[in-house]
Amino acid sequence: MKITKSGLILVLSIAFANLSLSEPVEAGCVKRTCISVTTDPKAGGIVIKATQDSPGSTTKPKPRVAAKPRAIKKPPRPKPIKNPQVKPAPRKWAPVPRAAKAFAPKVVAALSLSDTLTQLIPLRQIYTQPSSRALTGIPIYFWTTTNPYFSTITQVLGISVGLSLTPTFTWNFGDGSTMQSSSPGGSYPLGELTHNYRLPGQYQISLAISWAGSWSAQGSNYPVIGDAIVQHLSSSIQVLPAPTYYNQ
């Protein structure tokens, strides 16, 4: 089969496109530094971990050749001397050289760096208005000093990591009524979270604040992994019966 020049260019273009699509991309890793952001529900915070691996090197020097012992020449035998009192000189032998020690190459271990940071979300309070002597049938305002967002920027192993979380507020008014909102509420007259109690009594108020969000590094965004961070706040309020008026 004959392939023309234009057909060859098309085949090569398709091949390079397939190679670029099949190359895996690891999320959260930039320049040998991998970052993971997870939740810690027990501590009420976000854990930021960074690891950086640099390949080690092993030097392999040339092995030294062991020195070969030199050949020892035997001295000529002395001729007999007529004078028996003269003793022949002792033979001198060259010392045998020691074997050279084997040289062990120095191994450089791979360098591994790691850093762990924990960003705790502040725990606030809840309030009511009126705070005491509330009356049945009259709206009571509820709010919390918790911020409607949590954001921070931190540095781990030289890389800036941005964190952004938003809360969801779930109120339980203690009389079987609940309300969910993205707003922390407010006092009169700007507050939007109100509740009317029909019967007098002492009520236990509880608030569950659930945090979720994302983090970013080097221009890329990733979701925070793990179970939601839930903060629990509680308070109590006493509700009195409203006065009754009769019209004549």
Summary of the model, kept short:
The chain has 248 residues and is mainly beta.
List the helices and strands and how they pair.
Blueprint: H1 5-22, E1 29-30, E2 33-40, E3 45-54, E4 111-120, E5 126-129, E6 134-135, E7 140-144, E8 150-156, E9 159-172, E10 178-181, E11 194-195, E12 201-217, E13 220-223, E14 229-240
Protein model, in words:
- Helix content is 7%, strand content 41%.
- The longest helix is centred in the N-terminal third of the chain and has 18 residues, at 5-22.
- Strands 6, 8, 9, 10, 12, 13 and 14 form a seven-stranded mixed sheet that branches.
- The protein starts with a helix and ends in an 8-residue tail after the last strand.
- It has a domain at 121-240: Immunoglobulins (Immunoglobulin-like, Sandwich).
- It has one helix at residues 5-22, and strands at 29-30, 33-40, 45-54, 111-120, 126-129, 134-135, 140-144, 150-156, 159-172, 178-181, 194-195, 201-217, 220-223, 229-240.
- The protein has one helix and 14 strands.
- By secondary structure, it is mainly β.
- The chain is rod-shaped and about 170 Å long.
